[in-house]
Amino acid sequence: MNKQKNIIRVALATGIVLMLVKFAAYLLTNSNAILTDAMESIVNVVASGFAFYSITLAARPKDSNHPYGHGKVEFFSVFLEGGLIFIAGVLIVGNAGYKIFFPEPVGNLMGGMGLIAFTGVANFALGTYMIRQSRVLNSLTLQADGKHLQTDAYSTSGLLVGLLVMYFTGMVWIDIVLSLGLGLYILWSGYKLLRKSIAGLMDESDTKLVSEIAAILQRHREDEWIDVHNLRVQRYGHELHIDCHVTLPNYYDLSRVHDEVSAVDKLINTHLHADTELFIHADPCIPDCCSYCRVKDCPIRSVPQQRDVVWDKSIISKNEKHI
Questions:
Q1: What does the domain layout of the chain look like in residue ranges?
Q2: In this structure, what DSSP letter does residue 196 have?
Q3: What is the mean pLDDT of residues 119-128?
Q4: For a surface tag, which of 10, 21, 28, 278 has the fewest beta carbons within 10 Å of its beta carbon?
Q5: What is the CATH number of domain 2-201?
Q6: Among 180-194, 199-213, 238-252, which is the least confidently predicted range?
Q7: Looking at the DSSP assignment, which residues form a beta bridge with residue 242?
Q8: Is the pTM of this model over 0.85?
């Protein structure tokens, strides 16, 4: 968690410096498109500040009021960031529309482009590093902030191309078109972040994660694990909470059932590379399970094994035995 905080601190400090550089470029050129890029940098700074707060809060241990921890605050961080980006996009598009009717002259483009190019390279490098670290640290906040910085770098690249065309052709209207295009792109980026945060707050199923868990169980399954179903995943910041049903031979005593459930828990925690808490409900097998049961020399088998069930996301998510 300390590493996440340090990364966010660097992102916050970098964001403040780059924001000042972009506004300096705007004052140098009076370009509406560069002003658009600078306005988005304000969002970067605010978002990084809230990201630092959310990571600090998410690191708090579980307590009586928050038995699942404080990790959900990361979704609020992403929601705020997406909302700010969306609002910035609306303001940028509105300002560009205004400048269509009341244009202003643009000057000293080469000096401004040099400053903007520097900010684009810095944002892309930092954003790429944050996304890589988000995978290692399993941090949604770092991922959202990193993607935002990469988005900023991409928009800066498009801005530079347009400004170069305007510089060599003298077509001043390109400045307004660039501003409109960047504003719409920023609107779309904000919408995607809002969509992702709402999905997390509503505990929407993460199909990619369920597929990964299914692959782990299928690859390392034991014959005694006759069936896995009703598997659900909830994300609380860097922690995952998984619950599922595991069908075991009905003649196992309580100690053996406990051992098998613990083995499933250990397997997932070992291979998933995330802090995972599992709640596993043990089901006794029924005669209908015999047709796909792998248990050898079963004393109560009613029919020979006739087929094999491959565990994938669609199979293990169903709330029923696969009879």
A1: 2-201, 207-316
A2: H
A3: 91
A4: 10
A5: 1.20.1510.10
A6: 199-213
A7: 233, 278
A8: no
